[in-house]
Design brief:
The complex is a heterodimer of chains A (about 220) and B (about 325).
Chain A lengths: L3 H8 L9 H24 L5 H7 L2 H9 L23 E9 L5 E6 L7 H19 L4 H17 L3 E9 L17 E12 L2 E6 L14
Antiparallel strand pairs in A: 1-2, 1-3, 3-4, 4-5
Chain B lengths: L1 H24 L5 H19 L5 H5 L7 H8 L15 H20 L3 H18 L7 H12 L10 H11 L11 H25 L3 H4 L3 H6 L16 H21 L6 H19 L2 H11 L5 H10 L3 H8 L1
Helix pairs in contact in B: 2-5, 2-7, 2-14, 5-6, 6-7, 7-9, 7-14, 9-12, 12-13, 13-14
The chains are: A alpha+beta (about 220), B mainly alpha (about 325).
Chain lengths: ~220, ~325
């Protein structure tokens, strides 16, 4: 036989209750650490102050964010428009003229025309943009990334050498100056290099852009 | 004097503690989390599927993203886990890829959800970390949504788990209703907080740029013919429309970060998000990003409103049967 109070307790729907204080304490601590690390990462990756820089580079925080793919500022500008120095945020394409063993030249383009679906197109665009970003900053990763791309293409085609060319599709004129039917937006060379086998590794030689002015005369 | 100050801080501490507990730990119906699981799982499945044609080019032994190349590019000390680093032969890669697709498929359908949620996060994380240099805006958002879905009972509704539980119930072997869960609250709150942070940072970033102030940003986006889904250069004839579109986008982002926290305004903000992000997807081609931003914003819809919305969509029957 069930006692009246126990009967009521058994019949009543289970009251939603908070977790135990111990559980709340542990979870609250973990939440605080997570959110603090996230906030530090956001600040660190976008114009950091000296304090934010120091906090952001602490091994634990940085490793945690990197492991969870959260080491970024989430500032999605979507366009750098006509801002000076912001021309990187444009469509990029990477072309490689691969010289095969029989002397034939096989052109490869990333992203290839008509690549589908759009997510793949976007990835290949990002490949070009990363190279353009590294190149514009003279970052040491420029040569590494170019060598990575060249090695993969040369191995894939069992080829001898290739010429890499990265171009940026410039945006049209400002809205007020745009005239339909005018000249299509120009392309700008962002990076060019020649890659070839040197023993068992691929050597990449950056091609300097052609000068449009004569070098200054040497002093006698 | 000191008594007043002491009372103030005691009161502040108590109120803060109560508010904190209510915000993070008040049990809630996991329906909202379940809906986010289905849609985010579908986006993750699609994202993984798009890696298929490039699998060997990206991750193969002679591919672009060899371990040596990734370690050199990311620099010393970078900490990113990817099980793809352990796979070397093309056969291993293909087997792992198909297994990953199966995991994401099961997660989307809601089978063994507590396990497949964690595995789905690890699968996507592995691809994002390994293909780090070709990821863009969408991947970090999808990553955090999948992470937080691991924390709560995201398979409580709209899942095969619930379907089989219902069958066991009919045989008298299982409990009836889905109980409210504090873990669901933590998971939903984390998505809400993280998404708000994304919106705040987007607004701050865009307001740091001239084109979003002078109203021409959408023109510059439309001017990227390789990215836009349709040719929108005819917009030059309607500069005020471009201005309005640009300002509306920034205004929406700023408003979302505030108004989404209001129970009454949240459904409106999510509905507006479908329009705002849909239009941005047309002009930028960033369809998966638009989709995951809308899906993540669903975390702000209270379960009762979500139930009513699903009922309007003709899914009420599915929901009732899954409630047990």
């Amino acid at each position: 036989m069930i006692e009246p109070s126990r009967h009521l307790e058994a019949a009543a729907p289970a009251e939603p209750s908070l977790p135990s204080p111990n559980v709340r304490t542990v979870v609250s601590f973990l939440l605080f650490v997570h959110l603090f690390t996230l906030a530090v990462g956001v600040a660190y990756n976008e114009f950091p102050s000296s304090l934010e820089q120091t906090l952001g580079e602490l091994k634990f925080f940085q490793g945690y964010r990197q492991a969870l793919f959260m080491d970024l500022s989430y500032t999605y500008y979507f366009t750098r428009g006509s801002d000076p120095g912001g021309e990187l945020d444009i469509d990029h394409s990477l072309t490689a003229d691969v010289k095969l063993a029989d002397g034939e030249i096989r052109p490869i383009q990333f992203p290839a025309a008509g690549v589908w679906p759009g997510q793949r197109f976007r990835r290949y665009q990002m490949l070009g943009r990363r190279l353009a970003t590294f190149s514009s900053n003279d970052a040491p990763q420029t040569a590494t990334l170019a060598q990575t791309i060249a090695t993969s293409l040369l191995k894939g085609d069992k080829a001898e050498s290739l010429d890499l060319r990265l171009q940026g599709q410039l945006t049209p004129p400002a809205m007020a100056n745009y005239r339909p039917g005018g000249a299509p937006p120009a392309k700008r060379d962002e990076y060019a290099a020649r890659a070839f086998w040197a023993g068992d590794r691929v050597e990449v030689q950056k091609k300097e852009p052609a000068r449009d002015t004569a070098p200054p005369p040497k002093d006698e | 004097m000191w008594t007043i100050v002491g009372d103030y801080f005691r009161n502040l501490s108590e109120r803060f503690g109560q508010g904190w507990n209510r915000f993070w730990f008040a049990p809630s119906d996991p329906l909202t989390l379940s809906v986010v699981r289905v849609l985010a799982g579908a986006i993750a499945f699609y994202t993984l599927l798009t890696f298929t044609p490039d699998l060997e080019l990206f991750f193969g032994p002679d591919g672009l993203w060899t371990p040596e190349a990734m370690f050199a590019l990311q620099g010393p000390g970078y900490f990113g886990f990817s099980y793809l680093y352990l796979l070397h032969a093309p056969g291993q890669l293909w087997a792992a890829h198909l297994a990953g697709l199966a995991v994401l498929g099961l997660f989307t359908l809601g089978l063994f959800t507590r396990v497949t949620a964690v595995l789905s996060f690890l699968v996507m994380l592995s691809y994002f970390q390994r293909a780090f240099f070709v990821t863009a805006e969408m991947e970090p958002v999808l990553a955090f949504v999948l992470l937080y879905l691991c924390l709560g009972p995201s398979g409580a509704y709209l899942s095969l788990d619930r379907f089989f539980a219902r069958r066991r119930l009919a045989e008298g072997k299982a409990a009836a209703a889905t109980p409210p869960s504090w873990a669901a609250t933590v998971a939903v709150r984390l998505i809400q907080v993280h998404l708000t942070l994304v919106y705040v940072m987007m607004v701050l970033g865009q307001l740091n740029e001239n084109t979003w102030w002078d109203g021409t940003a959408m023109w510059w986006l439309a001017g990227r013919p390789d990215s836009a889904l349709v040719d929108l250069l005819w917009l030059h004839e309607y500069p005020k429309l471009v201005n309005l579109w640009t300002h509306s986008f920034v205004f929406y982002e700023a408003a979302f970060a505030v108004l989404a926290w209001n129970r009454l305004a949240a459904p409106l903000m999510v509905a507006l998000g479908v329009v705002v992000w849909g239009l941005l997807a047309i002009v930028t081609g960033l369809v998966p990003l638009a989709a995951i931003m809308v899906v993540a914003s669903l975390a702000f819809i209270p379960p009762d409103a979500m139930r009513a919305a699903l009922g309007c969509c003709g899914l009420g029957g599915v929901l009732e049967s899954s409630r047990g």
